[in-house]
Amino acid sequence: MLNTYYCNGIIKVIEIWFDDDINFDIPNADIIVSYSRSRPFNPKRWLYSYTILINLAISSKILLENMDTMTVRQIRRAETNDGTECVYYRNPTPQNIKEFVTFYNDFATAFGLSTATFQRLALFDRYGLLGLSEAKSKGKSLVWHAYLTHRQHGRAMALLSASGRRWNQNKTTCNLISRANRLLHFQDMVSLKEQGYRFYDFGGWYSGTEDRKLLQINSFKERFGGSIVYGYDSEEPLNLRGRLYLAYCPLRWRFCNPQTLKEFRRRRREAAAPATHHQSAWSFLNMAGDGGGMGKSPPGISSARGKRAILLT
């Protein structure tokens, strides 16, 4: 899977996800960035990439059984009491994408996150790699999710997620939105399972110990079950402009986004540490592809709640 975009309107970046082939002969490309590969394509410039994967090759009943009691209770309440409606847009229209971008950017601006662009999501959609979903109540959007859907690998990864919680500080409404978000995740799993996808990817898991917000997000994801896995992110400058840009990024972060620089340095230290977690001979994807004991972890591999990573291949 190949995706091309321009960073700051100047640097041409080639994105490659999972273990797709890498083509270094892209005209005028400055940087190749790969995500979640089974091994780094650049042995000198890589970082660990953690996420939570859920095996969809099981029944919806077992998907629920693998979740914690509170999550299941909130999903059921959203279904039966709240009247929440969930819609999955398998082939999103330009209007669907515009609605998502508007909703997400309002959310991102309020919380100091990077905004989404219509152009990048439309490019994913052009290659058949974009899925969108929406939870709404009484005609009003409560939550939106965006997925990178890679049919070749049977894997759907959460790209972006936004809720309308910031628009109403009323606790009752906030709880309604929280339940809708859980229901939407579950209904997305069911829809993706019906489309033939084998893995639901939560799109990241924070391996650090200091950022309380990210640890809270970890806790939210872990409540759905699944296994924590890791792959490798790599970057490769293809010319002088690419090398200068990669050298410039940490300097820009120092003044504009020190938290990003701090996280980058933490991941660099993590990559330099002895990789004791490589010892498992099992891979989650191979295990799940063979049935995987109906979604249970194989010997020596713990579930997401155990916070122990395994190699993603």
What structural class do helix, strand and pairing data support? alpha+beta
Based on DSSP secondary structure assignment, what is the total number of beta strands?
11
Name the beta content range: 25-35%
Q: What coarse outline follows from CA principal-axis ratios?
A: globular
Descriptive account of the structure:
This protein is α+β, with helices and mostly antiparallel strands and 313 residues long. The protein has 2 domains: 115 residues, no CATH class; 140 residues, Gcn5-related N-acetyltransferase (GNAT) (Aminopeptidase). It is built from 10 helices and 11 strands. Strands 1, 2, 3, 4, 5, 6, 7, 8, 9, 10 and 11 form an 11-stranded mixed β-sheet that branches. The two termini are 16 Å apart.
